[in-house]
Amino acid sequence: MFRLAWRHSVCRDSFALTTRSLAAALLGPERSQQGPLRSLISNPLSYRSPVLQPQPARYLSPPVCRSMASGGEQESTCHKHTNRLAKERSPYLLQHAHNPVDWYPWGQEAFEKAKTEDKPIFLSVGYSTCHWCHVMERESFQDEEIGKILSDNFICIKLDREERPDVDKVYMTFVQATSGGGGWPMSVWLTPELKPFIGGTYFPPRDQGRRPGFRTVLMRIIEQWQNNRAALESSGERILVALRKGTSISANPGGSPPLAPDVANRCFQQLAHSYEEEYGGFRNAPKFPSPVNLMFLMSYWSVNRSTSEGVEALQMAMHTLRMMALGGIHDHVAQGFHRYSTDSSWHVPHFEKMLYDQAQLAVAYITAFQVSGEQFYADVAKNILLYVSRDLSDKSGGFYSAEDADSVPASGGPDKREGAFCVWTASEVRELLSDVAEGSTGGATQADIFMHHYGVKEQGNVAPEQDPQGELQGQNVLIVRYSVELTAARFGITVEKVNHLLASARAKMADMRITRPRPHLDTKMLASWNGLMLSAFARVGAVLGDEALLERAKQAGNFLKEHLWDSETQTILRSCCGGEQHELQQMSPSISGFLDDYAFIICGLLDLYEATFQTEWLQWAEELQLRQDLLFWDDQGGGYFCSDPSDSTILLQLKEDQDGAEPSANSVSASNLLRLSHYTGNQEWLQKSQQLLTAFSDRLARVPIALPEMVRALMAQHYTLKQIVICGQRDDSDTAGLLAAVNSLYLPFKKTAH
């Protein structure tokens, strides 16, 4: 299904750059009024470019054939090409191991080759469950002609953005600043010194009307590198200088954080302005879950309960959460949430499932339960964790990163389709749910009731405009169209009977679905996302008093300490992988953790400590915070750098200033520091939290909607954390009752001790 490359974050107006200099460098002054990519490709080159100098494809091995297990049987797989990515462990890099492209992983070998051969670098960035990454791989990187153009004229580097978010952030910042948007796959061309000079996202392989193809783009860049290199390099350097200035975040000497009530009020007003009232959410389409917005709104309500603004904030959050849970973005058969909705009603999703979404949404739904006492929200939170426990869990205790959107249809065929694993035809539903529902009006079958309730139509329920590529023709994406009360009235049966019939139908459909070819599972286990999921299991388990969920949280904590913590070097490791048989594999070479790895794990450990009162988790959180301060703290400007500032291959030292699909690590760190200062009495951490918030003062004051999680930390500083001390034996019934009472309440600015 067609998906536009989504702009991952808004372009910062602090470094909104004119692209005229870059366009002039690429094509000369006469084209400098156009955007860089549009200018670059406005006049396609003939393939007769003198720059092309065919070379032997020595990077490719002979055809490789091997047997591999597939569905319990041995299936022969033969590859015409195999490149050096076959030795990598990243699932994304392995997806490109048989391209006719001389791919390198990010590293010194590629950098040295670019310098030695004096060639530009083509950097391609994506991740293993990215739909449009799959499309570009199939269309362009499997193309023999394009592969030869790339390999003969560029040093080609393939990068997994989830393994190296530091590299991704630098070049995404460049692409957003020079083209006005960004997304994945990201395509960037660099000098041998790693300085970018042109970038974009997805390109079709060949020209489509006025839309240029990837081959055309490559040919134009080859020509300009040969004939206009100095201008390319100088323009790229000027943009980097501007980006360094525009992305700089630091506290003014003697400054202090802005007033929390003012910032919170402005954040609420900005969210209210973008709120879509009918279905909830914060734009028309595409719609993203945005848990950071929902958590802020519930926190805002907690301190403004008596005001109309507070009531409105709560309504916005609760309505959005309800409509998402009823929508097609929610997997009604096998639980969990898809990445985002392509329409305003949360109906037709982009079908990939990401671990970080499940973690944050579980916390948002359990928080809604605390606020409302409505079991509906608790059930959604539990179902999310059921999905994660069943489908995204490793036997080591860690959590996998994602499930893909694309899979082979049950009907067979060589091509994967988006959503094939999740959608249904009316005939499938009727065949599976053919039993008559006793007592129903007109002898309705279970299928009749199910199809009415979930909007299943004979011709399919996906509008053509939501399916430009025709992958969902005749298919149905389940969406709750009626309440159980209305469905019961429609068929003349009780609400209890409807609930039983629907639950039975979903179970039958789940059993049938697991017989279909499954989508790709990214078995990479990231420290940061595992930290988010640790928080989810700890917080949901604490609120519900569910010992099984708390035990799973402890398993996750032990996994992180055993497999992603190097005790000798006192360093978090970024990731490890499950192998073909799900055995644990460490990355080689190992990648040291980034700021978000430390921040998210510390937050998870603090949540686990508050849920269990086992001091080992608090002690490790303190240890990790000390390491985070040493590795990433900016002594001059305050706040934390996203990555190690001593790494010379990272051209921009960035401090993430947006809470997006994931909260920014600085936002989470502001809260972590405050919580740790209260638990330990370490006033230095309180001061660091204040310095961090001061560094982001301008952003918080002007566009707090960009940092709702940081606004929550600012509110916690202002309203101070309320200390709740529980006395008594942990396993005593009275103590358990007190804990249950505290955990049932939504008290966002508290710390609990025992």
TrEMBL record:
Organism lineage string: Eukaryota, Metazoa, Chordata, Craniata, Vertebrata
Chain segments annotated as transmembrane: none
UniProt-listed Pfam families: Thioredox_DsbH
Domain Spermatogenesis-associated protein 20-like TRX residues, every copy: 82-243
InterPro entries attached to this UniProt entry: 6-hairpin_glycosidase_sf, 6hp_glycosidase-like_sf, Ssp411, Ssp411-like_TRX, Thioredoxin-like_sf
Region forming the signal peptide: none
Protein name in the entry: Spermatosis associated 20
Coiled coil: none
